[in-house]
Design brief:
- The longest helix is centred in the C-terminal third of the chain and has 16 residues, at 148-163.
- It contains 3 helices and 14 strands.
- By secondary structure, it is an alpha+beta fold.
- It folds into 2 domains: 3-66; 76-163, no CATH class.
- It has a 6-stranded mixed beta sheet, with helices on both faces.
């Protein structure tokens, strides 16, 4: 059986079988190069891509299928989706923040962050779409992510780390 990776983002893939397109799980690569496979059978952590290759007993990173995921949102800021029809990019020179900021009106001083995020609120981790900058400044967060699936994957990782 040949295993393929169907690209979701640059650091997350859907693991599928080549012929039947059967979904095996979701593989995500962290910022430090570690990887996590989430599947019906549970969660498996890997230190690097070599361990993933050994686990599947084949060079799955040579079988990456690149597809474009259409989003419901037409509007983006710095490549990240926004939940507003006509966003005004608020920080083109990254003077306020490295995050993709926008406002809902040209003169607004309320900044929103484009994309999906995982935010650690007092009651635990939750996902958010285009949150206010003030929220991200107040709480620990991970992101931005370009799609909901990648954010949900990281949310699971954050919640699992919290339990340890």
């Amino acid at each position: 059986m040949i295993i393929q990776l169907k690209e979701i983002t640059e650091s997350s893939w859907l693991v599928i079988t080549e012929k039947e397109q059967e979904k095996i799980g979701l593989l995500s690569e962290g910022y430090d190069g570690d990887l996590t496979l989430l599947s019906k059978g549970g969660k498996v952590d890997f230190n690097d891509r070599g361990e993933v290759t050994e686990f599947f007993a084949e060079p799955i990173f040579d079988n990456i299928v690149v597809t474009s995921l259409a989003t419901d949102t037409e509007h983006t800021v710095k490549g990240y989706p926004v939940d507003f029809t006509n966003p005004f990019e608020a920080d083109p020179e990254d003077e306020i923040s490295d995050l993709p900021l926008y406002t809902k009106t040209k003169t607004s001083t309320v900044y929103h962050c484009a994309g999906y995020y995982c935010i650690r609120f007092p009651k635990g981790w939750a996902d958010a779409y285009s949150p206010k900058l003030a929220t991200l400044e107040k709480y620990e967060y991970v992101g931005p992510f370009k799609n909901e699936l990648e954010a949900k994957s990281h949310l699971t990782i954050c919640k699992n780390k919290e339990k340890r």
